[in-house]
Amino acid sequence: MAIRQRLAQPGTSGRVQSRRPARCVRLNVSAGGKVYIDPVKNECAAFAPATVANLGPGFDWMGCAVQGGGDTVVARVIPGKPGVVEIAAIQGDGGRLSLDPAKNCIGVAATETLKLVGAVSCGVSLTLNKGLPLGSGMGSSAASAAAAAWAVNGLFGAPVPKDKLILAGLASEAAVSGYHADNVGPSLLGGFVLIRSCRPGEPVELLQLPFPNPERLHFVLVNPKFEAPTAQMRAVLPKETPMKSMINNCCQGGALVAGILTGDVRLVGESLDRDVIIEPVRGPLIPGMMAVKAAAKAAGAYGCTISGAGPTAVAIVDDPVVGARVAEAMSAAFRSAGKLEVNTAQVVKLDPEGAKFV
Fold first, then answer.
1. CB burial of residue 231 (10 Å; 0-12, 13-18, 19+)
2. Which residues contact 32 (CB under 8 A, 6 or more apart)?
């Protein structure tokens, strides 16, 4: 059964529905009578996994978390600076990301998380270890935001549930790549997440979709040495689409959800392979992508498409041995047809947990 969660945006009507065990929160009353929330630890580290968004016809409304790579954030208490957020260091980005917390997704996510926690008595210093390449199509910014939100939340005993922290992740995503939850949702919650409603100023509604027998589901992820920034890949999307194309994608999107809920790996693979709206305009911008798609299916994959905005290609198999063969074929196609070297080629499983303390 799908788990339904409805999150109220700040300043709007609606309720946040969640179930969580009671947690102890330390309260500190200042001389002026104001109540502050104290941290329960001086340091907290969190990891958030890579994600595969869109899954073909599920553009902007479907995503899942996958095992393997991800980003790690360490949050440390800054005494005497209530609500202040600083970025101490970033590793693994080649010096490309800003240390200004207002211009970096971890700074935005941390700031929004502190607001959700309440009136805190301290500030927070962040260190980011980038395990995912920038512009990879594997939810790089979302993993950073999710890890930052969960680490900062952990300093105070994790009083804010993961589903509500998606609001902090959304604010972060909006600052760097657009207001969409199909990466940050699964990176925080794990598993498959369907975004039923996600508009600025309105309640956010997510559906967590359980996948029976997840050990049978394998994702083949091949990331070439090519960067596809989300903003640029969104700029090429069509403003209008033919009725026939819309019907096809609705049909395949429904089949994708059916495949997930019934644990039908073949149906998941075949459905994500049949997007006729987004992939046809983005695919040609990724050198060799169409050849990679054909090579994956010829090697035994049930289907192949672009992961997120790309350039990573994702294929679906039900056997890791077949997955290794598919990964080799996809990598060879990127090299021969796309003239691109390959950063990573891996066969991974669904990540059911999402963000976690490390």
1. exposed
2. none
Tell me the CA distances in angstroms from 336 to 113, 299, 301, one per residue in order.
46, 16, 19
Distance between CA 118 and CA 104 in Å, rounded?
Answer: 22
Secondary structure class of 57 (helix, strand, coil): coil
Q: Which of 51, 111, 127, 230 is catalytic?
A: 230
Report, at the CATH architecture level, how domain 26-210 is classified: 2-Layer Sandwich (3.30)
The label of the residue with tokens 């927070």 reads: 124
Residue-range domain boundaries for the chain: 26-210, 214-349
pLDDT digits (tens, 9 = 90+) for 245-289: 999 999 999 999 999 999 999 999 999 999 999 999 999 999 999
- Give the strand order in the sheet containing 313-317: 303-306, 313-317, 218-224, 342-348
- Residues 112, 173, 270, 279: which is the catalytic one? 173
Q: Does the annotation count 12 as an active-site position?
A: no
The CATH class given to the 214-349 domain equals alpha beta
pLDDT tens-place string over residues 309-339: 999 999 999 999 999 999 999 999 999 999 9
Structure tokens at 236: 């090429």
Q: Please say if 173 is a catalytic residue.
A: yes
